[in-house]
Design brief:
The structure holds two protein chains of two kinds. Chain A is of the alpha/beta class. Chain A has five helices and 13 strands. In chain A, the strands form two sheets. Chain A has a ten-stranded mixed β-sheet with strand order 4-3-2-1-5-8-10-11-12-13, with helices on both faces. In chain A, strands 7-6-9 form a three-stranded mixed β-sheet, with no helix packed on it. Chain B has a single domain, classed as Glutaconate Coenzyme A-transferase, CATH 3.40.1080.10. Chain B has six helices and eleven strands. The chains are: A alpha/beta, B alpha/beta.
Amino acid sequence: MGMGKEERQLIAKRAAKEISSGMMVNLGIGIPTLVADFIHDSSGVMFHTENGILGMGPSPEQGKEDGNLSNAGGYPCSIVPGASFFDSATAFGMIRRGYLDITILGALEVSEKGDIANWIVPGKRVPGMGGAIDLAQKAKKVIVLMSHTTKGGSPKIVKECSLPLTVKEGAHLIITEMAVIEVKQDGLELIEVMHPYKVEDVIKNTGATLKVSDRVLVNK
Amino acid sequence: MTVDKKVSKVTSLKDVKKYFSDGMTLMCGGFGGVGSPPSIINSILEQGAANITLICNDAGFPWIGPGKLVTEKRIKKLLASHIGSNPEAGKQMHEKELEVVFYPQGTLAEKIRAGGMGLGGILVDVGLGTIVEEGKEKTTVNGSEFMIEPALTADVSIVYAKKADPYGNLVYDQTARNTNPLVAMAGDITIVEAEEIVGIGELDPEEIVTPGVYVDHIVQSEGVDWKWVWEKRKDN
């Protein structure tokens, strides 16, 4: 947490590279929402919202907002040609049925096996899971965007999650302000490092074993 | 072939108050406040019913949608997928004034849909391997494990629609549809707040989302309050 605008945008920009034409994609609240601004070719990408849109478009101009057209976070949005509206049961039916190519969400902790914790800090913060469990368990690819450490500097990528899980072994890719990490069968692999950090910084701030790819990229 | 006054379900906000009572189970349409019926919620507040069990996608905002009922301490138990947008609900939960039961959003929607469809429940695997499965009955079908989630119905369902005809056929508007068609089907008594009430035959049968048989009473909306949801946030 406590990341600046530039770091948040860097993360979103990197996540946008995972999206290609023809995909059905759900963006969570926070940094994931920013991803839409960085997609090079948004043609044919259908953004899904839990409140009942397939084919969400960009934020409308000020003064052109429609009170009955918002994204799942309650912010005004628009639709693209080919969009459809549907009820909440259908919105989640298409997720459970396996049509969602990518879901991009935030997390409090991710384990080296890809376990994600993001909806409850027992006794402290209990907002509820919303649609996070449905999305993380059923999307074909789950991308986690988050700060690499907590405000206090503790690693958020850990051996075992200490918080109740959202999904077991669900994450495929973790993108932070420091690194891009792939969750593989045999553990975590560092594939990219974000400028100005070094491989050693990432290892020092990660609470799980990291295999460093022999072709690690540096993102500027 | 017209629906005459005897069968018209159009009534007043004052007349629907008799359906609200202490201890009732209330189901409310809406998602983050958008699409919740504000005029009916106000009439519940005026009528005074308390100790309500509320079933709703979320707790809305403190002064928007069903969140108002929470703020005014009318809710004893809440079944929802999240309460993150309503700090008052979180506060009451921690002080043990409000019991909250959380369900994954898609599971909650489908439990409501099952209630409206006359089913006993659903088989779902969302949340297996997490605390969601605690205390849930399970079964195996075709080699896969599922939780058995009982269907949900309510004494009273309240929904918001863009258009209603006197028989209760409903049309919704964009993302203000959300859980409304599901909630409309699951109430023993379903009361609709409509932005516009049109004559019988004026809705194209192909565009009707909720068939009128599910609807008992229709009231004219006095206007909505949820624009604030994002206008307020924009100012922050």
